[in-house]
Amino acid sequence: MMTAAEFSEIRAFLAVADERNFRRAATRLKISPSALSRTIRTLEERLGVRLLTRTTRSVALTEAGQSLQTQIQPLIAGMDEAVRQVGAFQESAKGTVRINLPRVAATVAIMPKLAGFLSAYPDVRLDLVIDNDMTDVVAQGFDAGIRAGHRIGQDMVAIRLTPDFRMAVVGTPSYFNEHTPPASPHELAGHRTLTYKWEKSGTAFPWSFEGPQGRVSVAVEDVLTLNDTDLLLSAALRGIGIAFLAETVVRPYLAIGDLVRVLEEWCEPVPGFHLYYPNRANMPAALRAFVDYMKLSGR
């Protein structure tokens, strides 16, 4: 593999070969003519062949020098172009942004803004991966993630996307016609509960509430656990039992009477959804564009 010094020697040789003049080549490389001359001499000694013929007025390529220029120059030009193209990713917003987020966050925080962002940045492609688990976005190769604020690590940069929201205990009117609505979380023990369960950890979402004496967590006897909030909502709408879901998910069904809410005064606010990403010096321009757009559109 070529060392940095050897690469610099090749760059110096190509500059002289292009300019056919040591002084102009030295100016182009921002070094002194004497330093350039020493660099060329070192290259010739390393290769064991003369590359240039020098006179008082001009510089000419030897046959070996001509051969080296012909073979090396396209390779160096290709490298320069590759570096330029990579730099363009930083200068302009282009490329793919991979984001890990739960379904409800996609629905309430991203989808309403998606068309505007993609129209503003036509060279950016979004790869949204719906995942309700507590995925390590850095380890899994994501650029960013979206979660409720209290579930984000302290080592991450976080930007609020939505206001705080509450959880909601809901069931159908027919369900509550057959089962007395609970007046406190402790009365959930006698109900058919539908609970979200994280797929990777196998942990059930806790039924936690805030009362006059502080936090209350109750053990429920689930008739159904699911790792999909849409299916959990569907089960609740079919009258199978009562579910504990984000109010943003159930609000439309409460408005039309398909679901009834109970224990509302016991449900504490949950920090809204936040876009989060690792703190780094050189953020890709596409990710920066997404972050800035979401930040501005949320105001």
UniProtKB/TrEMBL annotation:
Pfam families in the record: HTH_1, LysR_substrate
Transmembrane segments: none
Keywords: DNA-binding, Transcription, Transcription regulation
GO molecular function, one term: DNA-binding transcription factor activity
Swiss-Prot/TrEMBL GO biological process terms: DNA-templated transcription
InterPro entries: LysR-type_TF_proteobact-type (IPR058163), LysR_HTH_N (IPR000847), LysR_subst-bd (IPR005119), WH-like_DNA-bd_sf (IPR036388), WH_DNA-bd_sf (IPR036390)
Domain HTH lysR-type: 1-62
Highest rank taxon of the organism: Bacteria
Similarity comment: Belongs to the LysR transcriptional regulatory family.
Protein name: Transcriptional regulator
